[in-house]
Amino acid sequence: MLIVMPVYDDVDMLDVTGPFEMFRWADFDVELVAEKPGAVTFRRGFCFEVKKGFADAGPCDALWVPGGDPQALARRMGDRTFLDFLVRQSAQARYVASVCEGALLLAAAGLLDGYAVTTHWAFIPCLLERFANVKVADGHPRFHLDRNRLTGGGISSGLDEALKLIELLKGTAAAQTVQQMTQYYPQPPVASEIPNTVSCFVPPVTIPPRATPAA
Fold first, then answer.
1. What percent of the chain has pLDDT over 90?
2. Is 193 among the domain residues?
3. CA–CA separation, 149 vs 143, rounded Å?
């Protein structure tokens, strides 16, 4: 099984590293790719090396799109090279997945039109305001599956979503084994409610016309 993750400067660390860990325990190959090979910096984090560029990415079982800093998202949403990469990869993937604000990148590429999805609670207004053909799932689910589109809520939701993708690709027993090996039985020491938000945090952006048909 091959999972392709497109990354960029100011990408959210846990959107990448948490699912990466889950997938590796499932014996999946995980391929990090950037527009060009080289150093990439996590949001408020450290640098890491990406060895493959978009041109090096082949067919995958799942495309996994992480979220990031709102300014970084706006840059990617206005970057036709990035969006066309998502379109090409989605056309040859069994599942197309995003975690957190990565849903905005898929939406900007036209890949969520006609699907029900979720994202980080703070970015739901972005989907509602800017993408009329995308339906937002009710109730802030940790993840939501609509046909072959698997979308996740905010940041830590990627752990639950990764287990769901493992189950979809390899079966329930495999996902249970990963849960056991990573000891993923969360019991947070605090409890709170997801707040309401009414405005979009991502700066306005003009999405370039699509050159490649969406999957």
1. 93
2. no
3. 10
Residue 213 lies in a domain: no
Model confidence pLDDT, tens digit, residues 92-142: 999 999 999 999 999 999 999 999 999 999 999 999 999 999 999 999 999
Annotation marks residue 100 as catalytic: yes
Instruction: Indicate whether 54 belongs to any domain.
Output: yes
Of 60, 100, 126, 200, catalytic = 100
Residue-wise pLDDT tens digits, 51-74: 999 999 989 999 999 999 999 999
Domain harbouring 138, CATH code:
3.40.50.880
Residues 151/28/90/199 CA torsion (nearest 10 deg): 30
Q: Please state the rounded mean pLDDT for residues 150-171.
A: 98
Number of domains in the chain: 1
DSSP the chain: -EEEEE--TTB-HHHHHHHHHHHHHTT-EEEEEESSSEEEEBTTS-EEEE-EEGGG----SEEEE--B-HHHHHHHHT-HHHHHHHHHHHHT-SEEEE-TTHHHHHHHTT-STT-EE---GGGHHHHHHH-TT-EEPTT--SEEEETTEEEE-STTHHHHHHHHHHHHHH-HHHHHHHHHHTT-----S----PPP--S--SPP-PPPPPSS---
Q: Is the pLDDT of residue 187 over 90?
A: yes
- Domain residues for the domain of 73 are 2-181
